[in-house]
Amino acid sequence: MSTEDNSAFLEVVNIKTHFETPRGVVRAVDDVSFSLTRGRSLGIVGESGSGKTILVRSIMGLLPKRGTLREGAVMYRGENLINKTPAEMRGTWGREMAMIFQDPMTSLNPLMKVGKQIAEPLMSHLGMEKATAWATAEKLLHDVHIAEAQRRLSQYPHELSGGMRQRVMIAIALACGPSILFADEPTTALDVTVQAQILELINEQRRQRNMSLLLVTHDLGVVAGNTDEIAVMYGGKLVEKAPTKTLFAEMKMPYTHALLESIPKLNHAAHTRLATISGRPPDLVHPPKGCRFAPRCHFARDRCHSEEPPLTAGKSPDHVYACFYPVGSAEYSERKVEISRS
Ligand SMILES: Nc1ncnc2c1ncn2[C@@H]1O[C@H](COP(=O)(O)OP(=O)(O)OP(=O)(O)O)[C@@H](O)[C@H]1O
Ligand SMILES: [Mg+2]
């Protein structure tokens, strides 16, 4: 595929990932579809437990084997990955799809020098000679803006700062030149300044390498400036998706609106209480019958509790949402007046 080809090259079609547990079947990802275009970035946002990580793991085929029920298709460059075995996926991991995790300390090997951790996949996946692999590892550390790269190669992870360890993780993820980078909460363990630098680095590398990025976070503020498109998940479902600008200008789901309200704003007075979404996320063994957000939604009506809202297109076809009484509808505005009076 040429780098100019902008057609969707990852297509996730109606995927379901359910887990059998003693308590019943957990519907962690429940009928999610979306596509990703070469070189573009998609943010996946939602509260804890909404199924973000399991969605990413479902695409990459990184799921426990026992008790996992999977349906749907993961089409990557015209091939369905859903039923591939780990042995069959080995050529895809690292080379086509790579992943950065939240906490580098759990994914870096504490007993192995940084250089070896970067060089090994280069030798095993790309068949590089040792000397070339180490030279490439050094270049990768330069790419992720680590100073004194040569010295760092012979250090252990604990000798590096948190931000630097995350940069090493990014270098490892980039090593085999993947087409898609999955970043699952890559900055939550870092302080705000380092967080911004890491996101900038991920985006810089995405542009330079024409990679696609799938950035997972619970923070709508993080995806706002860092992705082309945003998908919002709630209770294992995709409930709203739109190009980033459209989402912020015309969000339709009361849930998306509530997520936005929960971001701290600079212009808030010092002791203003932060709006949080009251109530608890749905039980994924016994999810509510209608809209999964209805029990927590101030705008829900009878229909929302009995009927599941389908994903519907907004003004533009690339904006979809699952809500019967979206932000801006007559019923929504009517309820808003009632709330402000009470
Ligand atoms: N192996 C498993 N067996 C049973 N349930 C699981 C398993 N793995 C995940 N789950 C459940 O699936 C749901 C989705 O989990 P997931 O880790 O995708 O959430 P998340 O959106 O990534 O949350 P967070 O923001 O906390 O990382 C959760 O309710 C979780 O408890
Ligand atoms: Mg997660």
Structural write-up:
The chain is of the alpha/beta class and 342 residues long. The protein has a domain at 8-83 and 218-266 and 273-341: P-loop containing nucleotide triphosphate hydrolases (Rossmann fold), CATH 3.40.50.300. The chain contains 13 helices and 12 strands. The strands form 2 sheets. Strands 6-7-8-3-9-10-12-11 form an 8-stranded mixed β-sheet, sandwiched between helices. Strands 2-1-4-5 form a 4-stranded antiparallel β-sheet. A hairpin with a 6-residue loop joins strand 11 and strand 12 (320-321). The site of magnesium ion has 3 residues, from helix 1.
* Average residue pLDDT: 91
The CATH homologous superfamily of the domain at 8-83 and 218-266 and 273-341 corresponds to P-loop containing nucleotide triphosphate hydrolases
Biggest beta-sheet profile: 8 strands, mixed
Order of helices and strands: EEEHEEHEHHHHHEHEHEEHHHEEH
CATH class of the domain at 8-83 and 218-266 and 273-341: Alpha Beta
Low-confidence stretches: none
The secondary structure category is alpha/beta
Which percent band covers the strand fraction?
15-25%
Heteromolecules bound: adenosine-5'-triphosphate, magnesium ion
The counted number of beta strands is: 12
Number of helices: 13
Record keyword descriptors for this entry:
342 residues; alpha/beta; Rossmann fold; eight-stranded mixed sheet; four-stranded antiparallel sheet; 12 strands; 34% helix; binds adenosine-5'-triphosphate; binds magnesium ion
